[in-house]
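We treat protein structure as text, and this decision shapes the records that our systems exchange. Because each token names a local backbone shape, the row as a whole describes the fold. An entry from our holdings is shown next, in its original layout:
>
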Amino acid sequence: MGKNVKKLFWYVGISSLFFERSIFVLYLIYKGLNLGEIAFFQSTINIAMLVGEIPTGIIADNIGKKKALLMGGILMIIYYLSMLFSDTFVMFVLGAVVFGIGSTFVSGTNTAYLYDLMDDKISSVKMLGRLSTIITGAIGLAMVIGGYLQKTSWESVMWLGVSAQIIGVCILLSLPNIVVRASCSKKIFLYDVFRAFKNKGFLRKALFLLGLNEGIVSSIYILAQAILNQFGMRTEHIAWVFCIETLLSVVAFSQIETFINKFGRKKVMVVTIAGTALAFLGLNTSKTLVISCLVLLISVLNNCYTTVLLDEFNNVIEKDIRATAISCFNMISALFMACIFWSISVIGDNYIFMFSILGAISTLSLFGLFKYIAKSSDNS
């Protein structure tokens, strides 16, 4: 592993220390916002991310991943400062816009940058798994630290976030800026991405099927707290469920290459996809222990097959449009999430049954990508 990849891992780990992640709603309440305003704040973030995904991906491919990540880091610093010094609701909303756009500069770009920096001899699945391990572990650690630190001072949590982003920006400055283009004068446009998707069946199917599945899995992850609380689980026990989920995800990401080398890509894909579909079908129960275990199982198995499929996605897409292509994937996932949350407001209490069926169907549909994975699995 080269020194630049190591630096990137350090940057990702430190910049993923979002200490306010598990308590930001409580922080906003502390700052005087009511629940309606908090809901609008979160919606603003989602809209900003949805609008910004593809444009920031195109920017990253044109000016280089390092510069795009630097822009994201600077916007994150501005977001934290706005959370510290805002005294009106309008200022908080502006901070939400900054956070949403800043997130789109980072999401997908760090993965694309990793593939630019990697030596061709290094296992890309292993490196992608390691990157995901670092991000997940850093977020989990920061959530615990932030939860305890707020007892001393709410503002100290935000200042610690500012410090983490500043350190991340400093690490980025020591990395090379890589712009992968066929010629120095060529610029990347959205048409180039559409052309790539048109010419390669795997990319089209992966964009839709994996985007749909990620949207559903991400939604169930977000709503699991409400589901468990609805069936009577205490708040501290819910927190432990997600603490365990973080630890298991770290193990899954770090061991995915071991699983592939031992069992092969085909078997890993079959077991994880089928297991996730069965777990979704089991969600339609009122037993909190069963729901907790199934949520953990869905998360861990999803991490395994998603890593394999995204690795294939990153290897198939042309280098010069990789960040934009990943942004398209993130946008599709966000669109499905928006549709899911809207449907919940219509369906009401029956949303668990809806998740159970949709989750199983969307996961099983991933077998539509199996023939592409099978081609490379024979060489694993």
The chain has a mean pLDDT of 80. The first helix runs from residue 3 to 15. The CA atoms of residues 19 and 265 lie 36 Å apart.
